[in-house]
Specification:
3-stranded antiparallel β-sheet, 9 helices, alpha+beta, single chain
């Protein structure tokens, strides 16, 4: 029997929310509470901020494990109206929809169950999302589990549909070469419209149809609830070629309308020069500052010092890379853990050289150090079980942590990068013999 983890990794909670899922069944396969209808706890009986305990005003979703995430369960019709209570801050959280000044039209109820789930998509807050183990899968069979993305599907009201279309076509989807929310991509949209008008007047209708077909198919898929439309340039990469080609033609249309010949001649050169300057400037910036933010620089510097210092006079083991301990595998697909693995491959002397760990060298003076990155409560339990299995060979001498960016956020101390070091020495007062670890990380 196989089992598979389902996880909602989170999206931007300010404007969007995951909707609920179809309850998928194939033989004895079933997703428990796929529509998020059932929960325990909450605030005065209503859904509220997520918390796995379901106590103290928090909501626990039946059948799902709530990880280290910042999210809310939204009752039917409350997403952009009455919202969901936050016991952490003592106030109400709402999504930005048409009922409270937003442009995204969020349906009053999810088509699948009624409730919405809103998870913060920020890299520092999304954590491990929520997860559920699905049993009864058969090797070789294919299964489909889908979620309704509330803020990226067209509303059914004709008036709201017009506002939604205007919003998505002037936001991130059209952010070439730049743009953003709240109409910040309107210039690109205007150039695309100019190109469409030009094609309708005197251009090839076949070429125009080819250019617009991706948009039409995307809208149809969104209308059927199969794939989100707009909201993010990443999910709309398939329309990028059409946007760029049409925007280029639209720009030429605008230039041709200038009443001064010298402007018509020089404007393309100025525009190309500006784009070239921007491109070269961005590359120069990346050379001088080879990191996206100060946080990423700090993360890299911590990793550089950590692996160099902890590897001195010790044998290093990574709980994930070397031992393959089951440390929330879905969490290890996220950006902080991926950065950790990249830094490990670069800065850890043993890992970068591809050498095996030398357990025969472990002594009182040359300990074994087990590294766990961003350890969670469930990870600590896994490590504890591993220590019990190896109690006859090693004893724990110390446990310590090295942190980056520890700040007081949302009512608690948060460390974005957190290295936990378990230091072991032989259980007996003689040099340790090599012990074969589960996973093949270190053998005699």
């Amino acid at each position: 029997m196989l089992s598979k983890k389902l996880s909602l990794l989170g999206i931007t909670a300010v404007a969007l929310a995951f909707g609920s899922s179809h309850v998928a069944r194939a033989g004895n396969l079933a997703v428990t509470n796929g529509g998020f209808e059932s929960f325990t706890g909450g605030s005065s009986g209503d859904p509220s901020q997520l918390g796995d305990s379901g106590t103290g005003g928090y909501s626990s979703i039946t059948g799902w494990t709530v990880g280290s995430t910042y999210g809310f369960l939204m009752a039917s019709g409350s997403a952009d109206t009455t919202g969901s209570h936050s016991p952490q801050y003592g106030n109400t959280f709402t999504l930005w929809g048409s009922n409270n000044g937003g442009v995204n039209s969020i349906p009053a109820s999810s088509p699948y169950g009624g409730n919405y789930l809103a998870l913060d998509g920020g890299s520092r807050y999304r954590g491990t999302g929520i997860s559920q183990t699905i049993s009864g899968l058969t090797a070789g069979d294919q299964y489909s589990v889908s979620f309704y993305w509330a803020g990226a599907f067209p509303p059914r009201s004709p008036i709201r549909l017009l506002g939604w279309l205007l919003s998505v076509h002037t936001s991130h989807m059209f952010a070439y070469p730049g743009g953003g929310d709240h109409g910040a991509s309107a210039l690109t949209t205007g150039m695309v419209i100019a190109a469409i008008v030009a094609y309708l007047k005197r251009g090839s209708k076949l070429i125009l149809a080819l250019m617009l077909t991706p948009f039409i198919l995307g809208l149809l898929a969104a209308a059927m609830g199969r794939y989100p439309y707009g909201g993010s340039a990443r999910t709309m990469q398939y329309v990028a070629p059409s946007i760029l080609l049409l925007a280029g033609l639209g720009a030429s249309v605008f230039v041709s309308r200038f009443p001064w010949p010298i402007w018509r001649e020089r404007l393309p050169f100025w525009a190309m020069s500006l784009l070239l300057i921007c491109g070269v400037g961005m590359m120069a910036w990346d050379i001088v500052y080879p990191y996206k933010t100060q946080f990423f620089q700090g993360s890299r510097e911590l990793a550089r010092k950590f692996w160099a210092e902890e590897s001195v006079d010790a044998e290093i083991l990574c709980a994930w890379t070397d031992l393959r301990l089951p440390l929330k595998p879905l969490r290890w697909q996220q950006d902080r853990e991926v950065s950790y693995l990249c830094h490990q491959a670069i800065y850890s002397p043993r890992h970068s050289a591809g050498n095996p760990v030398r357990l025969d060298r472990v002594t009182q003076e040359h300990p074994l150090r087990l590294i766990v990155f961003n350890e969670t409560q469930s990870d600590a339990k896994v490590v504890s079980r591993w220590m019990n299995e190896k109690a006859n060979d090693y004893k724990l001498r110390a446990r310590r942590e090295r942190l980056l960016d520890q700040v007081f956020r949302r009512g608690k101390w948060v460390a974005t990068d957190r290295y936990v070091i378990y230091e072991f020495v032989p259980a007996h007062d003689q040099p340790s013999a090599a012990v074969a670890f589960k996973g093949g990380a270190a053998k005699r």
